[in-house]
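#struct-pred

JT: dropping the chains for the assembly here, can someone run the whole complex?
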Amino acid sequence: MTDNDPKYVFHSWSAQATLNPVNVVRGEGSTFWDEAGKSYLDFSSQLVNLNLGHQHPDLVQAIQTQAGALATIQPAMASDVRGELARRVVEVTGGHFAKVFFTNGGADANENAIRMARLVTGKRKVLTMYRSYHGNTTTAITATGDPRRWANEPADPSVVHFFGPYLYRSAFYASTPEEESQRALEHLEQTIILEGASTIGAILIETIVGTNGVLIPPPGYLAGVRELCDKYGIVWIADEVMVGFGRVGEWFAWQADGGAQPDLITFAKGINSGYVPLGGVVISERISQHFDNTVFPGGLTYSGHPLACAAGVATFDAFERDGILARVKDLGERIVRPTLEGWLETHPSVGEVRGTGLFWAVELVRDRETREPLVPFNAAGPANAPMVAFAAAAKAGGVWPFTHFNRLHVAPPLVITEDELVRGLGVLGEALNVADAEVAS
Ligand code: PLP
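RK: done, full complex below.
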């Protein structure tokens, strides 16, 4: 590696002098290679965006073809490829959805969805969950319910956090999914009442909480959110930036949950695997109509960039031709679930496994009885050493893992072959021996 990166590149979320990033020189499918020629199976799909893997030939070809025809066009002009992508997004969303507003990524999708909700309701406050991530712009980072928000406070003063369902570490002393669902909804309604329904424009939630734990809402929770939003005149924004476009074997994760429809859906990442930055908001008919004769006061130079949209259209083609949604469900149930559930028998550091499709979390604990996490919340430095050692063992075995706090997440590209999936899970299982050594005997 030349010294250009350490000398000139300012990296995200980091103290710069502490960094030693892997220098990636090549990628193909689920694998990437560093400059020494070592290969890694990418079990985090980069930042859970690389749904179709590295260097997918269809996406590369689509970008090249579009670059040859029309590399860029400003958003006030129409473009066929942008229109086609918007149509295909609306078609797979179904239900009451009508239009798409394109952004550059997930944070600005959330910013603009919140802006729409505020304009439609005339109410400013936004409720979001603790244990969530919504992006790194002013309102999105305030909406975020994890430590990345702390250094940015106060930012947008109109955001209030509440507890979402998380049965393994229930804030409501619940012992069944039904109890967790009902009590989390009661808590949300109390929050609405005490914050003042007349002040709340939006409830923004990750349909399945991603980085903060792969928390799948228990039965009835999303339907309950829908009811509360209708009762109190609040817009439900579903953040599907991480789980949209196939991660859990659906176009959007809310579609698996009994049919309660959000008002706005934000997306990014999987729409085109991040080959060219792209995000957006899918807008319901009702909210879309509000802006038929009222100006929407928002825009971006690169909204619906043709190269990004071309990769998005190619993504739809590949998903449909290769049956990606069905294979995600199949691999998740046939291979990932039994392997991870097997770890509960063989690895004392595994406290819980949960997930669906190709999106799973493994909670690592010191003690299964007390559920004490393997490392404390937001641990850094020596306190985080066991997780660092676990990740190092995985990398030494040729798997690039996704770890967050005391958890391993399993989120490989959706095109991973069965052999690769089995091999990678084998390496992660071996690496768990490092975590087992920390368990109180
Ligand atoms: N929302 C969720 C659920 C995310 O996981 C992320 C990114 O990880 C974002 C929003 C922000 O997306 P971006 O980094 O594209 O701004």
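JT: nice. Residues 57 and 76 are 31 Å apart (CA to CA). DSSP finds 13 helices and 16 strands in the chain.
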